[in-house]
Known about the structure:
The protein has 239 residues and is of the alpha/beta class. The protein has helices at residues 45-52, 75-81, 98-104, 112-125, 127-131, 142-154, 172-187, 199-205, 223-227, 230-237, and strands spanning 7-16, 19-29, 34-38, 60-65, 68-69, 83-86, 160-164, 191-195, 208-213, 216-222. Keywords: Amino-acid transport, ATP-binding, Cell membrane, Membrane, Nucleotide-binding, Transport.
Amino acid sequence: SASTPLLALNDVVAGYGNLTALHGINLTVNKGEVIALLGANGAGKSTTLRVISGLITPKSGSLTWKGQAIGGMQPGRILKLGISHCPEERHVWPEMTVEENIELGGYLLNAKSELERRKDLAFQRFPRLKERARQLAGTLSGGEQQMLAIARALMSEPELLILDEPSLGLSPLMAQEVFKVVSELNAHGVSILVVEQNVHNALSVAHRAYVLETGNVIAEKDSASLLNDPELLNAYLGG
Ligand code: ATP
């Protein structure tokens, strides 16, 4: 129904071996939203993204996608359902060409024609990548590698794009460009869940934000109210 969130996490507990990194997370992403996940290092932001995309299995709690339980599903199945995870620190393959990296994002596609169609779309969206299609990815600038990672993640035509620190290590100008891409994708109907250290960049595009601290959600606010909450910003987000 219209009120069913695209994605919902209900009391999700997860971690690594004996370490519990998430102590019962509640979070929703509605269709068309950009949601920011904020918090200090080690708060559990990346772990939240990993549990959503199936890279780690929740210990308890539920995850639903359009009402369907997805907790513990294999990453490939979750990708097929429409959730694409663009991981931290870019993870492009430096010894492969730009084009080959993009093709990897379409690894679930059977039809070559569909792969070509989506690759054309990627090159239309990112003309700089088209110019550098045959160049090794490792020779791109940091900002270009980030764009490549996003282009690759978009090859599955996700309804929800998950971005982990897309502006990490980029110049302020390149970071702005990345967030412009995020806005454009959202304007084209892609919902987005983004982890970001730069609170102001994140809140400039997000509709709502969740603040995590040591594996707990300690606040959920729309971006405007969060920007008007200096106490919260100072306490948890470094001002
Ligand atoms: P950062 O910005 O530093 O990535 P984060 O908010 O994304 O912070 P997580 O990476 O989710 O935090 O880490 C949450 C907790 O889980 C931390 O205590 C961290 O040390 C631990 N952790 C993260 N990844 C692993 C891993 N692969 N193996 C073991 N422990 C991990």
